[in-house]
Predict the 3D structure of the following.
Amino acid sequence: MSLLVVGSVALDSIETPSAARENILGGSAVFGSFAASFFAPVQLVGVVGEDWPVEHTRLLERRGIDMSGLEVSKGGKTFRWSGKYMRNMNDRETLETQLNVLGDFQPKLPETFRRAQFVLLGNGSTVTQHMVIDQLAGADLVVADTMNLWINIERESLDRLLKRIDGLVLNDEEAKMLTDELNVVTAGRRILDMGPKFVVIKKGEHGAMFLSGYDAFLFPAYPTEGVVDPTGAGDCFAGGMMGYLASVGRIEPETIKTAIAYGTLVASFCVEGFSLDRLSAITKADLDRRLGELRQMASF
Ligand code: AMP
């Protein structure tokens, strides 16, 4: 089955302790779609402005991503985000967010996209995420990603969204912020009380935790030494996970575990380059090689 991915399509400017790049391809829908395309056909929905370099669209099309849901807004400017990473390459500071055309994005799903069974609502405004759910004919699995910005400024809308989705993906700090809890497991349980059937809490280089009413699974991150740019890791995690689930079409404890492992591994390659540089250079076989290594490292 295919996966519908909605989110930001961005031009990012990134500073790390050793390098910097300006106006490179980014955004939650871009990283999420590319990650999912290792496993399943993907349909992207997003918006850009007239300054959008068309070669970025071509790159995603060459991956087989259906870009017919990318709206080019006349006279508008593409969403821009800039961030700076600290020496540990884990902590980052947002230098600037220019919402531009993303600010009043009203997604209109092409007719064929409305029947999607697997949907990833990538990081973006909860208002947009609601509008996408409104247009779906009835999906099997809707998972949303979110971040501190939306928890802060769209709290009421986020609370309503939590009652409309099956799963939520967010990082540990965001989970604590959303629930006012200091313990990450307690925070996860509180999020389940707010609506979703499951929650995946990402803990950066320390891996991820899956919690539902029935199960709890822990996953180590793949230990990468060559971190070049962590941007997009979270989106790749969610995209890889959802792409794999769409490819098997079954949501069961075993497929969820494998899906989270693949999400972890796509993220591990993503951080080895800026933008999609590293991911563009690997194949599914490279992911499977790391899957074998991860299995060996994590078994006892
Ligand atoms: P991640 O590193 O997984 O958190 O994702 C980084 C990507 O998220 C970058 O490519 C940004 O363009 C995008 N991004 C940053 N802030 C926002 C936001 N407020 N809404 C949507 N996308 C964002």
Summary: Residues 148 and 196 are 18 Å apart (CA to CA). The chain has a mean pLDDT of 96.
